Amino acid sequence: MHPFTFTKASDTREALNAGRRGRYIAGGTTLVDLMRETVERPETLVDISGLPLRDVTVTKGGGLRIGALVTMSDAAAHSKVRSLFPVVSEALELSASAQLRNMATIGGNIMQRTRCTYFRDVTANCNKREPGSGCAAREGFNRTHAILGTSESCVATHPSDVAVAFAALEAQVHLLGPGGERTVPFGDFLLRPGSTPNHEQALTRGELITAVELPALPRPLKSGYLKVRDRQSYEFALTSAAVALHISGGVIRDAKVAAGGVGTVPWKLPAVEKHLIGQRPSESLWAAAAEKATEGARPLKHNRFKVDLLERTVERQLRTVGDNT
């Protein structure tokens, strides 16, 4: 670990002033690991754990605003999260270990960096870590890597589970920076790699995440999260699916679907959603809609199995949520 200075912010103004020169840290469950591995080498850490960003509030119409410093475990257990958006609580509960969920925050979770082994190996070529050096994963062992949203520069997946739920629900990210407050759609907050995979979020220097807001959606709304992995605990997704359906009068009136474990960012599935809306739930509908999930997929040598696995994952979760409405 390289030397660094440490400061603790007592309010948002102090945090913003210090954040222009350093990196924010709260739970530290990802950043500290990367610092130990010398992947991250910040000169200054700004502790924001004391800021008043720990509330979960119901917004007008039945949406939710989750403070950036709410821990994963507290968000998962919150009665309003569980009742209004089960897909969020389920995604959180299927993430990491209980100990990490007690420390990690919602803001930190969506900011976490890839678990690509080449990114974390400072001896390997990685454009995300060192722009212009190349992508060792493309010709290396790439079983766990992305099949959607990839580029010649990067094929690493985004590791967050709850980010998949946020993408499906079309959440908004609230930011505070030197230029004031602004809101960014979640689909625009996490950036696809393109030719600049080192630019991962739509943040300006010194900006701070203050909350993630889930919109008010038509009710009744059934939702859930399915995670497929090599083992049943403390493992990242090979594929996952976040599904929310509004069914009224026996017809699907609205559908929100996204996939994880397969994209360079949490992957919204508009073609699946479009195929569902206006239709009556049926086994054939779930299967036909799920086939749309892999449009544009570009599998690599070792992860071709993800194409079929993603379709089966989406179909299974559509059935699970749709048959429970």
Describe the fold and architecture.
30% of the residues lie in helices and 20% in strands. It is an alpha+beta fold and 325 residues long. The chain has three domains: 1-50, 2-Layer Sandwich (Uridine Diphospho-n-acetylenolpyruvylglucosamine Reductase, domain 2); 56-111 and 161-214, 2-Layer Sandwich (Uridine Diphospho-n-acetylenolpyruvylglucosamine Reductase, domain 3); 222-322, 2-Layer Sandwich (Enolase-like, domain 1), CATH 3.30.390.50. A five-stranded antiparallel β-sheet has the order 4-5-8-6-7. Strands 9-10-11-12 form a four-stranded antiparallel β-sheet, sandwiched between helices. A hairpin with a 2-residue loop joins β10 (239-248) and β11. It is globular. The model has no long low-confidence stretch (mean pLDDT 96).
Element-level helix/strand string: EHEHEEEHHHHHHHHEEHEEEEEHHH
Count of discrete structural domains: 3
Shape, per Cα inertia axes: globular
N-to-C span: 51 Å
Quaternary class: single chain
Q: Helix/strand/pairing class, anyone?
A: alpha+beta
Total helices: the number is 14
Task: Please summarize the sheet with the most strands.
Answer: 5 strands, antiparallel
- Could you give the count of β-strands? 12
CA-atom Rg in angstroms = 19 Å
CATH class of the largest domain: Alpha Beta
Low-pLDDT stretches are: none
Measured by DSSP, the beta-strand proportion falls in 15-25%
CATH topology description of the largest domain: Uridine Diphospho-n-acetylenolpyruvylglucosamine Reductase, domain 3
Kindly report the average pLDDT value.
96
Helix proportion range: 25-40%
| Major β-sheet strand ordering | 4-5-8-6-7
